[in-house]
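Internal tracking record. Fields below are filled automatically when a chain is submitted to the structure queue. Please do not edit lines marked as system-generated. If the sequence contains nonstandard residues, flag them in the REMARKS field before resubmitting.
Queue: standard
Priority: normal
Entity type: single polypeptide chain
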Amino acid sequence: MISLRRVVTAGLILSFGFLAQAETLSVLSKEGQISPTLIEAFEQESGVEIVPTFFESHSHRDAILAANQGRGFDLLLVDGISVHHAVKLGWIAPIDRRLVPNARHISTIWSQAFTDTADYGVPYAWGILVIAYRTDLVTAPVSSWRKLFQPQAALKGKITLIRDADSVIGMALKALGHSVNSSDPVQLTEVESMLKTQKSFVHSYRYRGAVEDSDLVRGRTATAMMYNGDALLLQERCPNITLAHPEEGTRLWCDYFAVALSSPRHDLAHAFINFLHEPERAAQNALAVRLATPNVAATQHLPEAFLSNRSIYPDGKLMARCEVLGRVEAAGLRERNRIFRPLVGEGRGT
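SYSTEM-GENERATED OUTPUT FOLLOWS
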């Protein structure tokens, strides 16, 4: 068996003509999205240190990249709808499929799900937005987006949302019976009114995922909009946390790994992606982060209890109520930003 260290070294020599000083790989991702065990295994096999930087939301990631003109990182975790945006801004490079042979295990459903993802991204994980709430801190189940955005009085100051215009406005549209991708001015006016009223109920728009000091676990908040994997991890720490699949439906998302255009370590970035998509490793990672893997071969290594968990792999009935984010026209995007900025001071860039 050829070692990863030899493959990486050979790739660096082939690409640059000499053994480059590439002892680190800088990865911009959400916290807790990669198994620490697998990071350690890659470091040991390759002799390369993974240097992580974490973002809270997609808009936070874009702000980090914009502040540095997309420089300073080797590998980026990018949500599907943002891949095209990153390409236009010159932040990411085309994927060299020859360097990611394990990509053959990935479902074409996800590799082609969004504009430019077939050429510029490798699907990494997918899931849904859910509502997580503390059964011991609420007087009634928070089982719908409407109940989150038009909350019971007991939730005053007890709600956490994601600092992301797409997620908040998209799910507010769902709460009102509209599409997450609506740009209808009347519908967005309804959303603006609802979010203004809800604001006094919001403890924070800061998304911290499955961190140990979670507001939900500590009881500082009672309910939250969350990514399903993070919510499942918090549930393991606090049995009083329940996950709700909102009655109106929810957002279906997929994250992709993309190679930073400015990175001098393209071969190494590809090697890490390929490492994570070796089927047994992809299964190990899915179990660790509680997220569905787009790697079809990896599902053979996952237990039935994991595959049958509707909060990880939604069934057909739930999938039928899900929507993916689409390209929102410029006027609609500006209107969403206008609504969102007064709430948290930022939105998705145009």
